[in-house]
Design brief:
Blueprint (H helix, E strand, L loop, with lengths): L1 H44 L4 H24 L7 H30 L9 H11 L1 H22 L3 H30 L2 H20 L2 H35 L4 E7 L4 E7 L2 E6 L2 E6 L2 H14 L5 E5 L2 H9 L7 E6 L2 H10 L1 H4 L7 E5 L2 H7 L4 E6 L7 H4 L4 H9 L1 E12 L7 H17 L2 E5 L3 E7 L9 H10 L12 H4 L2 H11 L14 H12 L4 H10 L3 H19 L4 H35 L2 H29 L6 H27 L3 H35 L7 H52 L10 H4 L5
Parallel strand pairs: 5-6, 5-8, 6-7, 8-9
Antiparallel strand pairs: 1-2, 2-3, 3-4, 9-11, 10-11
Length: 788
């Protein structure tokens, strides 16, 4: 009888351990899926700006840290820990769907005019409001589940915290992979939220109800909810929330693809396509379609082979076919869903794609150009201004050089940017001057046509381009091209001598004019400045003033406080120094991990241009690296539980200092290769491997830091404080890199600044490792970290 009771007790304990582990894995799964979904929603709501992404990531980490810290201050008690986790699971599952709906509705609150851009202050307020509930619940749930795990396994707080960190990272990796391969391909945002809800309700049922009640009542109830929710409730909410997102406009269709979110808006007789909140084109808009194509083709005496990157859905392809010398047009568009939706809603403009002279390529424009063996008479870049890092890559010296190498003799490159008919502000002039100088760095001849949209043309042969409107008119008549706007009565007005002289004076570059590069995206900085100047200019003025500071002074301002903190900590008693050193290193590691993640995403985007196709898989591999690093650290601690691993913490911190420059060095080498095999390996293998390795160092840091911070028998309550510091470091990294460092100083200088910021905690940990301190002996059950 006693053996039977003991067997039942052992089975119950094993079941509790398995349940606690499953909860921690589900927390990571729910958090990363929610982050990916909300990140994509925020891109649409705020027009795809990396500033908004940085604010969103910073806010996400801030609220998660707040939830973690708050949970560490509350003691639920041993009996109520399981109930608290179950209640938080239900709340977390219920929170994602309403967060998506509120986020979509918030755009209409701040937009006084439909389609109007939203400024930095509304983005901050929206992020703080919309992300608070879900993130606070996620942070609280992690700490509560770690306590529950400590009770179930009868281990110390440091052991529970290390294993909880590992299991959450493993769940995040699984969520990223599942989102990339299945969820984002076949489900919309609210359907994904419904799946997260059902999983968390099921887990809550496993925590709160006995087995018989779960099987007979709860699980059938979950099935009924799923049957009602996914086919009936979710489509209604999706339609309503999308209508709120585009309030004041007639939404014809909204469609998710693996590359982004498409929306077709109808205003009167005009239909417009938006891609991740940025307008791509409108139809019928003959004026824009004609200007986008005819100016470029008229600059060439006899264009035969044309490459069109973007811009085909609004009629650009049809306009190019009007020129009788054109024999072939290679039209490159990244997303097949864009062509599909254009054929449905822009039939008149899309029928030209059936012409046998058209070769349609579903690829990134830069990637196609780099790998194509063809040479072109005219390359037309018809994409929006570089208002995001993804778009900026079509306006850099590296892209212009790639286009130059694919031009036939006498060929030219054409692009256009928004400007003004009458007045070009100093900020706008600085932006246009940067693009002009970047073109002049690559091409021998650059010509300009001013106007509301300013057109740039670049060629290698000197004096091969013309700014004579009469020559363009004569070519137009000779080719018998029928146009309504690019005509003999409009071209002389557009190219009046005084206007041409004025724009040349404004855009004349100097040696101090910066050149836009892939790894120093200064045009993106100028565009951020222009974007923010539309909303009162406070952020633009701050950014402008901050950009005038030398990089050395910025390094000093960042490193001096860290050195002061390290000096003050060195005067504390030994035990306090150890705890503070561990907290310092974890905060710095959180900052560096976020920096590595942002670098990976932006660098991938810079080279390949389709980050939202790979967003989930890169995040998944990054979290898998954190899980693998945590597992290796736990194995190390299991083998040397008699001493504190402060020396190992110092070594990892030094590795983190070198990690970002090394990452940038590898990616720089990869970006220089034009071989198809290298390009494929880079996207499919090298970048995911870099994400895995980047996460490993940060994952390895947390378990030994937890043991040093909490001690061998530390209370589980301290887990939340250390985890909150890790998240706050990531919050600082997201905000500083996205909103200031990368736009102003580019990738290389930012990488060296991150390296310098890691040296102070590394030196402090190295100094502490010189003084041996044996950990107090503890029972094996409290000291040992169980294998997850």
């Amino acid at each position: 009888m006693a053996a039977t009771v003991q067997s039942v007790t052992v089975k119950g304990a094993q079941q509790s351990v398995r349940t606690a582990r499953s909860v921690l894995v589900l927390i990571g799964f729910s958090a990363v899926v929610g982050q990916i979904v909300l990140m994509r929603e925020l891109i649409v709501s705020f027009s795809g700006n990396e500033i908004s992404l940085g604010i969103m990531l910073g806010t996400w980490l801030f609220w998660t840290a707040a939830g973690s810290y708050l949970a560490s201050r509350i003691n639920f008690g041993e009996r109520n820990a399981r109930r608290a986790v179950g209640a938080l699971e239900c709340a977390l599952g219920l929170g994602l769907g309403p967060t998506i709906c509120v986020l979509r509705a918030s755009r209409s609150i701040f937009q006084t005019v439909p389609g109007e851009l939203i400024g930095p202050v509304p983005i901050v307020l929206t992020s703080l409001l919309c992300l608070s509930l879900f993130c606070i619940l996620s942070g609280s749930l992690f700490v509560s589940a770690a306590r529950m795990y400590a009770q179930a396994c009868a281990v110390s707080g440091s052991a529970a915290g290390s294993t909880a960190y590992l299991l959450e990272a493993a769940g995040s990796a699984a969520g990223g992979i599942l989102a990339s391969l299945i969820l984002l391909r076949w489900c919309n945002s609210l359907q994904i939220a419904a799946i997260v809800l059902l999983l968390n309700i099921s887990m809550a049922a496993a925590l709160l109800f006995p087995v018989r009640l779960r099987l007979m009542v709860v699980m059938p109830g979950v099935v009924v909810i799923a049957v009602l929710l996914i086919p009936w409730v979710v489509p209604t909410l999706e339609h309503y929330s999308q209508a709120r997102l585009w309030r004041g406009l007639h939404l014809l269709e909204s469609r998710d693809s693996i590359y982004g979110k498409l929306a077709v808006i109808e205003t009167g007789e005009i239909r417009s396509i938006y891609y991740d909140g940025v307008i791509l084109g409108s139809a019928p808009d003959e004026s824009a379609a004609e200007e986008d194509v005819h100016y470029a083709l008229l600059e060439h005496p006899a264009p035969r082979h044309v490459l069109l990157i973007g811009g085909g859905v609004n009629g650009g392809v049809a306009q190019a076919l009007e020129h009788p010398t054109v024999e072939r047009i290679d039209y490159v568009e990244l997303d097949p869903a864009l062509i599909s939706i254009a054929r449905q809603y822009f039939p008149a403009q899309s029928k030209a794609l059936l012409d046998p002279r058209i070769s349609l390529h579903y690829s990134d424009g830069r990637r196609y150009l780099k790998t194509s063996p063809d040479r072109f008479d005219v390359i037309i870049v018809d994409i929006p201004d570089p208002q995001t890092a993804q778009l900026n890559r079509f306006y850099t010296r590296e892209f212009f050089a790639s286009a130059r190498d694919h031009l036939a003799p006498g060929g030219l490159l054409a692009l256009q940017l928004r400007a003004s008919e009458d007045y070009i502000s100093p900020d706008l002039a600085a932006f246009l001057r940067c693009i002009n100088r970047t073109l002049e760095q690559v091409f021998s001849d650059v010509a300009i046509i001013p106007g509301e949209t300013i057109h740039f043309f670049a060629a290698m042969q000197p004096d091969s381009l013309t700014e004579d409107p009469q020559l363009l008119i004569s070519r137009l008549h000779a080719r018998n091209v029928q146009t309504r706007y690019v005509r003999e009565y409009f071209l002389p007005f557009r190219m009046m001598p005084d206007r041409m002289t004025q724009v040349h004076e404004l855009l004349r570059s100097s040696p101090r004019t910066p050149v836009n590069r892939d790894f120093f995206p200064v045009a993106y900085y100028f565009n951020v400045e222009l974007w923010s100047a539309q909303f009162g200019g406070a952020y633009a003025r701050w950014l402008r003033n901050a950009a005038q500071r030398s990089f050395g002074s910025v390094v000093a301002c960042c490193c001096a406080p860290l050195l002061i903190v390290a000096t003050l900590l060195s005067r504390r008693p030994r035990r306090q120094r150890l705890r503070a050193t561990a907290a310092f290193c974890v905060t710095a590691a959180g900052f560096t991990l976020m920096a590595q993640q942002i670098f990976l995403l932006l660098l991938f985007q810079s080279i390949y241009g389709y980050i939202y196709h790979q967003l989930a898989i890169l995040i998944a591999m990054f979290m898998a690296g954190i899980a693998l690093g945590s597992w290796l650290a736990i194995r190390y601690l299991h083998g040397c539980a008699a001493r504190l691993p402060i020396r190992r913490i110092a070594g990892v911190q030094l590795l983190l200092a070198a990690a970002v420059p090394l990452l940038l060095f590898v990616v720089s080498w990869l970006a220089q290769s034009s071989r198809v095999s290298t390009t494929w390996l880079g996207a499919q293998l090298i970048f995911p491997l870099l994400a895995l390795l980047s996460g490993m160092a940060g994952g390895y840091q947390f378990p030994p830091a937890t043991q040093v911070y909490l001690g061998e028998a530390g209370a589980p309550q301290g887990i939340g404080t250390l985890y909150a510091l890790d998240l706050l470091g990531g919050c600082a990294g997201a905000l500083l890199l996205s909103c200031y460092l990368i736009p102003v100083y580019g990738f290389w200088k930012t990488a060296w600044l991150i390296a310098a910021a890691n040296l102070a905690p590394a030196v402090l940990a190295a100094m502490e490792s010189r003084e041996p301190l044996a950990a107090p002996a503890q029972p094996a059950s409290a000291r040992q970290i169980p294998a997850p």
